[in-house]
Amino acid sequence: MVVAEQQANVQRIFSEYLELHGHRRTPERFAILNEVYAHDGHFDIERLYGRMKQKKYRVSRATLYNTMDLLMDCDLVRRHRFGGTQAQFEKAHAFRQHDHVICERCGGVQEFCDPRIQQIRNTVGEVMGFDVRHHALEIHGICRNCKDKQRPS
Amino acid sequence: MVVAEQQANVQRIFSEYLELHGHRRTPERFAILNEVYAHDGHFDIERLYGRMKQKKYRVSRATLYNTMDLLMDCDLVRRHRFGGTQAQFEKAHAFRQHDHVICERCGGVQEFCDPRIQQIRNTVGEVMGFDVRHHALEIHGICRNCKDKQRPS
DNA sequence: GTTTATGCAAAGGCTTTGCATTTCA
DNA sequence: TGAAATGCAAAGCCTTTGCATAAAC
What we know:
Two copies of one chain form a homodimer.
Chain A: H1 3-20, H2 27-37, H3 45-54, H4 61-73, E1 77-80, E2 88-91, E3 99-103, E4 109-112, H5 116-128, E5 131-142, H6 144-150
Parallel strand pairs in A: 3-5
Antiparallel strand pairs in A: 1-2, 3-4
Helix pairs in contact in A: 1-2, 2-4
The first copy, chain A, binds a DNA duplex through residues 22-29, 44-46, 58-63, 65-66, 84-87.
């Protein structure tokens, strides 16, 4: 999908979500959505704030947090708490479902996919009568690079 | 396993860990370990602090946080960040490996086991050259109870 | 014209840090 | 005895909240 196409797509989704839930379609909300979808990878609120300030947007941290809540509610953004206390976000639409592998030493985050997770979701839903909406699988350990540095045999 | 047996067991593990890493075997550290292993389920620092204060232990929050770091390092405790910002802990030794199902509506946390997760860990280790140490799988959605309340058909 | 959203700044809550004192090795 | 650990209180950091102003409907 072309980038511009995707932008139009998520804007439409967000717009419909806002209308359906009686929220207003403010320019700030769409500016934030665009900024989120203009970059790949994870980001935190401070980084997003910095990027938007640099582009001369007049936006506050409070609005960023509020808008992230809305975007999470309509599944356009996912939130993670990998390492410390500060939350990491990533865009979620039209990306293959993926999970994360995190190195305890260097803090690096890699992505992976495994279809067996979908099977686990199905089983949990059936056995526990649970309406599964999302999941997050984190695998922690030592990445290849850090292992090699340790034993430079 | 009898409770007293388990206590002795984890105390030995902790003791050896401390010696191996050049840490001191202080009474506070073992008092905290015992308190952690005296209860089931999840707890946060404030709750643990309250319980120990009630039992007239002279212990500080700082030491609780420091000791949790040690206990996590030797795999006697796991830390989670389910909902808000405050971390949840649980004892980790001699308990069947399990993961968590979290209801978005009532905040309830249930446990489940699925052997396919071990298979995923193995695959990630092999394919990515990753030395897997831990994992955490959270499944989010609506639990049976909350579904039933919604539609009391 | 109402009501909601925004920006700013201040408050809040969890966690970490600094330092004098205690205590383990 | 010397280095590490403790308790207490203060500081830090991320996030939320309150309120006057601005803007969507």
